[in-house]
Amino acid sequence: MCRRTASLAGAARFRLTGGMKPGPRLTPLAASLPATVPFVGPEAQERSRGRLFAARLGANEMGFGPSPAAVTAMAAAASEAWMYGDPENHDLKQALASELDVPAEAIVVGEGIDALLGYLVRLTVGPGDTVVTSRGAYPTFNYHVAGFGGTLHEVPYRGDHEDPAALVAAARKTDAKLVYLANPDNPMGSWHGAAAISEAIEAVPDGCLLVLDEAYVEFAPEGTAPPLDPTDRRVIRMRTFSKAHGLAGMRVGYAIGHPDLIGAFNKVRNHFGMCRVAQAAALASLRDPEHLAETIDRVEAARVRIGEIAAANGLAALPSATNFVAIDCGRDGAFARRVLAGLIERDVFVRMPFVAPQDRCIRVSCGPEESLDLLEKALPAALKAAG
Amino acid sequence: MCRRTASLAGAARFRLTGGMKPGPRLTPLAASLPATVPFVGPEAQERSRGRLFAARLGANEMGFGPSPAAVTAMAAAASEAWMYGDPENHDLKQALASELDVPAEAIVVGEGIDALLGYLVRLTVGPGDTVVTSRGAYPTFNYHVAGFGGTLHEVPYRGDHEDPAALVAAARKTDAKLVYLANPDNPMGSWHGAAAISEAIEAVPDGCLLVLDEAYVEFAPEGTAPPLDPTDRRVIRMRTFSKAHGLAGMRVGYAIGHPDLIGAFNKVRNHFGMCRVAQAAALASLRDPEHLAETIDRVEAARVRIGEIAAANGLAALPSATNFVAIDCGRDGAFARRVLAGLIERDVFVRMPFVAPQDRCIRVSCGPEESLDLLEKALPAALKAAG
After folding, report:
1. Please, which residues bridge with residue A236 across strands?
2. Among residues A157, B3, B302, B385, which one has the fewest Cβ atoms lying within 10 Å of its Cβ?
3. Where's the Aminotransferase class I/classII large domain (chains A, B) (predicted)?
């Protein structure tokens, strides 16, 4: 039996002693994959820093918190946590169907958009298949594509916007199975109006599916989302309770699409994967539109405030239709990374785009006044230290 | 846009109108899969019956409920649900490592054993690969194997026990990637002592992995589980907070194995898949061993009571090391299915094994006195109606 000493010796010891026995055989694909992490969580950063963050503004979480009705529903559901959640997500799907004016058969609920993206990639992408996305867009989608052996074809941003026409053209040229587009976009916060998105949908080549990630759509101006049309086989829409509903920690996402495609998720999804308490939280949040409206107002005010903080430091905040703001640090990626490090050092958790030229920015999530006060205080020093 | 009328017309309408556009291309494997459901949930049965169950004794949930400390922790964590859970599950893994006396690197936490089985199958099984299990064992494991294109080789039970020697022999003969064994077993409640399991581990052929599902191990007699040994590459152990900890609805499972294999889960898992509230619940439950001990005592008493109810009806309860009891209805599967239907009709939710000869039994989960009172009352009538 493995004793505590082994624990202290760490994993290295296992490679020695375990090496005597042959291990299980991974698939060639699994063997080829790196054990990557799409994002390092703030808790891991806190552990390595040995100090907690004072302001949590890096993961586009909703620092204003969930609906009090959702909190009450979670507390009430806690004592029922001994029961599995309904694997059909019936009540939540019915409520969404009514809210969105689409049939329930056009909706699948899953463990966040992350899980739904994984299921979708699994359904459609295998070794040799091409998938198109923007260079610097959502890494977790790329993680899934790589994880199922797909080949990513990346299209550059066009002036801090994803480029729907170029994405669709690339999908046509590469015979892509999927083309990913976030509207509004993460990490830049930019967006396209419904007309541009509808045009892209019209141009999706036969046999390709547009994955329209609308995680942030509640924060966008009216007219950003084209009408939902579940008769259209060319697009699937991804939405979430993680952002505007403030329930990131509960893992509730949903997708809207043609019922044939939505039904196919039943081939592969973790049927009993949804937390019962999460189902209750999402349902309660959906029934509290006042809180949602209030959250959206507060996010709008926070965006303005972040813009003011940026301006006070001689920096430009990019226009945003999301609950975060990209601040252009005015120089190159190396400089922005130093600014980011300076903020982290000053206990302000923020993140930034991965690729140039977007990596000239840092990305700040909207949050409560106190958190933005800390940002306001830390930014001048971080900029100064960044030289 | 899809109007409410479409909702009323249902999915059929979509096949008509949506048929005009080509759909996305599923992978050949995905296209070949049926849209099956491993289990129909009790809520779906309630909806189709138009009536709630009065006793929920079918899904091996823990009707005695979670630890009050876990309920308190969930209520407290609810207001923090706006934050993603720690993707590393650090605190829970550390607590498990300390509890189990293994290094944290030997533990992976996931969204229930169901999700962990899915990740494991994905890591190891592709089209053309063979997997060995018992005929009539856990269907969700089979669902994952089929879902990744594996070929199932099924070994019969041996007198209501899974047959470790035959399973391992079949794994050798078929060059299997995985061999699945639940100890204690579901759906029969039978078990093997540690020596038999250790023997099976010793006999696992090179390149094969024994998937030892120990979901019910807390209910089993001392000496059922062989010592944990994460230097051993031949076996992975699966455990859960769904059963003895009464947290089925929170989706927290974990696996213990060689750190190389455990590390490989990071290649494919949904890193941000764990609910923050679930992490808090599991941690609090782990810190309440008194409640766990009390639950195990109550389960033992309920097993005795179920045995008495069976005996009072001239039926035999099989010995059980789990939180459920298989009741031998004394005739064939058709008869047991009628008994089951009679119980369901009388608002008592129970399930039963799928295959002969185990399907001569119904499977009753342990639960509170009131639920067993209802079973006691319904069983004679159900037996009589079954003829």
Report:
1. A211
2. B3
3. 57-374
Q: Quick check: B124 contacting A, CB < 8 Å? A: yes
In whole angstroms, what is the distance from residue B128 CA to residue B174 CA? 11
Say what the pLDDT of residue A13 is. Answer: 40
Which helix (H) or strand (E) covers residue A240, if one does? Answer: strand A235-240
Q: Kindly report, residue by residue over B290-322, the tens digit of the pLDDT.
A: 999 999 999 999 999 999 999 999 999 999 999
Is A8 a residue whose pLDDT tops 70? no
The full set of domains in chain B, from first to last, is 42-62+290-386 (3.90.1150.10), 68-287 (3.40.640.10)
- Residues A108-166 have pLDDT tens digits of 999 999 999 999 999 999 999 999 999 999 999 999 999 999 999 999 999 999 999 99
> Residue A332 carries which side chain, given as an amino acid letter?
D
Chain A residues within an 8 Å CB radius of B272: 38-39, 41, 112, 114, 140, 251
CA atoms within 13 A on the CB side of A349: 22
Quick check: A7 pLDDT over 50? Answer: no
Say how far apart CA B171 and CA B153 lie, in whole Å. 8
Q: Collect all residues of chain A within an 8 Å Cβ-Cβ radius of residue B55.
A: none
Using CB atoms, which residue from A24, A106, A278 is nearest to B275?
A: A278
A residues 273..292 contacting B (CB < 8 A) = 273-278, 281
- CB within 8 Å of chain B, chain A residues 232-261: 232-234, 242, 246-251, 258-261
- In the DSSP assignment, the letter for residue B204 is P
Name which of B34, B81, B101 is nearest A74 (Cβ-Cβ).
Answer: B81
Q: Where are the alpha helices (DSSP H) in chain A?
A: 4-9, 11-17, 28-32, 42-49, 68-78, 90-100, 112-124, 139-147, 164-174, 194-203, 259-264, 276-286, 289-312, 333-345, 369-386
Radius of gyration of chain B from its Cα atoms, rounded to whole angstroms: 22
